[in-house]
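Appendix B: complex inputs.
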Amino acid sequence: MKTIILELSGYRETGTLSPADEEKLKQGAEILRSGGLLAFPTETVYGLGGNALLKAASKNIYAAKGRPSDNPLIVHISELSELSPVVKEIPARARILAEKFWPGPLTMILEKSEIVPPETTGGLPTVAVRMPEHAVARRLIKLAGIPVAAPSANTSGKPSPTCAEHVIEDLNGKIDCIIDGGAAGIGLESTIVDVSGGEAVLLRPGAVTRAMLSEALGEEVALDPALEKPLEKDVHPKAPGMKYRHYAPKAPMLLIQEKPAEGLTAGGEKAEKRTDAGIWKTEETSGYAALNCREARLSAAVIAAADEKLAEGKRVGLLCSEETYPLYESHYRGKENLLLDCIGSRRAEQSIAHNLFSALRKMDKNGAEFIVAEGVPEERLGYAIMNRLKKAAAQNILYV
Ligand code: TXA
Ligand code: MG
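Resulting structure:
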């Protein structure tokens, strides 16, 4: 199959849709309506969209991704009135969270209505629903006039795509169309919260943090046990997708993490603010900051691990931060087998979220045979970053 690539040049240049972009989105919407598959940008990652109400479209999504069909898809809507047709009821918690966080990077699990076929929900009686904030995603869904089922637009098991090039790498020739709207802002998939039962349960951490959800609901949001400990055979995560080795580069990976600070709860407690760009942001960076002693200990352990693999003759990838980069750069200067990649600032974790998946893909491309990655503090967005890093490392973590 020939995949059409539609570049939204107006949107990429100005951040608003031009008349030419609008025409391309109409073309995309027609593909969705007629049962085709199309990848599109959202504020989290690129999605692979199909008509959520059409069995055949959902089946084709699984086939294109090479994804197990027990792993349900997220149904995307463009406005609140599109929620009630796909769910049995809208519980009070869902109303509160929709009001507060939609459009945005939050997916809610609700009881599904009759019109959503079991093919879309992996046979579950519930459906995952999200209203994305990205202008392209919302306009496309609106023009299509149907709920759009969209998992991340990667081959199953690979890191989620954060730009059109990643989608091309994985799905070119397997789907009808790719809409190129530039880089996704946040870079990590949406938060998933189950509001279908008697309590709200966090199934996947993302840019809407557990602390933000708890604050909005005025009650503590529970954590799915699968988030708390490495998966054992008898643990069945409520989000089936969380059980697969995900976000993973080809090379084995070691994650080196500071021992958690006393008294910090999972998901972080500190408040976040939103910027105009729609990207979740925490504190500002103030340029180069000296390493604190925990960071110094962390980088010493990273160097020890990387040196050991280099001594075995391996090509080693090292994922580091702006703060630690100068140290590694001088230590490894001239070492061809060491691939050093700075993925963002520890003082501004949204920069790390934004670059993480792209960095993991780059490691594969550059032929890394082993990857050593620095962990980040598990506060705020750091909790979601660490969730993805732990999966990429298949839970191979060294605490120092
Ligand atoms: O940010 C995102 O959510 C992106 C963009 C494209 O919107 N989509 C995305 O979809 O990450 P996907 O398919 O890669 O991840 C969906 C996750 C999987 O872990 C799946 O198991 C879970 O959502 N999920 C979907 N429906 C569910 C349900 N009814 N109950 C529990 N988990 C569900
Ligand atoms: Mg995915």
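Residues 42, 44-45, 47, 71-74, 107, 109, 121, 124, 126-128, 130, 132, 150-152, 189-190, 192, 203, 238-242 surround threonylcarbamoyladenylate (ligand 1) (CB under 6 Å).
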